[in-house]
């Protein structure tokens, strides 16, 4: 449940509006290089932060394949349970690529707004589903 849905909206499974998934790059990173490479730590509270960056050098043709664009949605596919499923929306025009433990989602833009998709996947109900085990809220005794 994600809340009230307008009657005019079609409610469909996420897989029906995401046309493609792309795994990031599995390359050695350095403190300097041509392209910043985003890692799972760059996803914080639904946003993608451009700090604590690592860098890589790649041929432009390969870099173009992994270059992030404003509005791209990244999904963290690995790590400890609290990090698996973290979602961030790239809101920058700066050049950056992304590491292998992140997946870029390509939504069908005629069916869903990519910013909405990122917010939806980052919501509490979706995060519980992503992690398969939802931690119940603790109540005061």
Keywords:
141 residues, four-stranded antiparallel beta sheet
Verbal overview:
- This protein has helices at 60-66, 114-122, 124-131, and strands at residues 18-23, 35-38, 43-44, 47-48, 54-56, 73-76, 87-89, 97-98, 102-107.
- The protein is an alpha+beta fold and 141 residues long.
- The strands form 3 sheets. The protein has a 4-stranded antiparallel beta sheet with strand order 1-9-6-7, with helices on one face.
- A hairpin with a 2-residue loop joins strand 3 (43-44) and strand 4 (47-48).
- The longest helix has 9 residues, at 114-122.
- It starts with 17 loop residues before the first strand and ends in a 10-residue tail after the last helix.
- Mean pLDDT is 85; it is low at 133-139.
What's the quaternary structure here? single chain
CATH superfamily: DNA methylase specificity domains
Helix content: 10-25%
Strand order of the largest sheet: 1-9-6-7
Structural class by secondary-structure content: alpha+beta
Short description:
This protein is an alpha+beta fold and 141 residues long. Helices cover 17% and strands 23% of the residues.
Layout of secondary structure:
Blueprint: E1 18-23, E2 35-38, E3 43-44, E4 47-48, E5 54-56, H1 60-66, E6 73-76, E7 87-89, E8 97-98, E9 102-107, H2 114-122, H3 124-131
Parallel strand pairs: 2-8
Antiparallel strand pairs: 1-9, 2-5, 3-4, 6-7, 6-9
